[in-house]
Amino acid sequence: MAKAPVQQKKRHRALILSGGGARGAYQVGVWKFLQEIGWNPDLICGTSVGAVNASAIGCGLNLQELVHLWKTIERGRIYRISLWKQIVHFFTRRGFSPLMDTEPLKNLILDRMDLRTLRKSDREIIITAVNILKSRLKFFNNQVIDIEHVMASSAIPILFPWQYIDGEPYWDGGVMANTPILPALERGAREVIVVLLSPVGG
User: Fold this and answer.
1) Please, which residues have CB within 8 angstroms of residue 74's CB and are 6 or more apart in sequence?
2) Residue ranges making up the domain that contains 55
3) Within a domain: residue 5?
4) Which of the 8 DSSP states describes residue 145?
5) CA 175/CA 50 separation, integer angstroms
């Protein structure tokens, strides 16, 4: 006998945080405004930098902590340029190496966020990443999100190294869905706020 389909829990208010690099600080400003007017989503979906912000909110970072996180990011302390690796690979022909080293970003996230708290949150957090081998977009919720998922969602191709999840390589979710609204629609959200960081079509 066929199994009945798993029913998604209804989510009435959804916040969608798109990708957009350093412009992710704008999303913190939007979040501040939503808190001031008492609009609290029970679902937050994020891609790329939106995944970083969604995870931070899901972990319970307050506005002051979010602002401090972004001040650190904007000071340029989260990436290292791997030009030396590129030079070595060019002369040895051993293949391609990403232009940037994201280990500082990883350490910053681990320092500021306790991702284990996501599993206890009543608010559902969903982030996206693209399976490189299968060319398939995948959604991860707060029951499974860990550092590799956050890093994968923001791993811009060529610039940043891909991340391995369950032994398979993943890239930035923005490659296939820079504005991940589908989970909100699947959960029947009645109020959806989308925070775009790039012009439509841009």
Assistant:
1) 22, 25
2) 13-195
3) no
4) -
5) 13
Query: Residue 121 class from Cβ within 10 Å (0-12 exposed, 13-18 middle, 19+ buried)?
Result: middle
Residue whose pair of structure tokens reads 């401090």 in the numeric block: 68
> Is residue 151, in this structure, part of any structural domain at all?
yes
Q: Residue type for 79, please?
A: Y
Specify the pTM.
0.85
**Whether 69 contacts 27, CB under 8 Å:** no
Q: What is the pLDDT of residue 55?
A: 98
Residue 11's pLDDT is: 76
Q: Which residues pair with 99 in a beta bridge?
A: none
* 202 lies in some domain: no
Write down the pLDDT at residue 79: 56
The SS3 call for residue 23 is helix
What Å distances lie between residue 37 and 30, 31, 32, 52, 98, CA to CA? 11, 10, 9, 23, 42
Domain CATH number, residue 168: 3.40.1090.10
**Calpha distance 95→169 (Å, rounded):** 16
The domain tally of the chain equals 1
Using CB atoms within 10 Å of the CB of residue 49, give its burial: 0 to 12 exposed, 13 to 18 middle, 19+ buried.
buried
Contact present, 159 and 99 (Cβ < 8 Å): yes
Task: Give pLDDT, residue 72.
Answer: 86
182 within domain boundaries: yes
* Ranges under pLDDT 50 in the chain: 1-6, 90-92, 201-202
**pLDDT score of 159:** 86
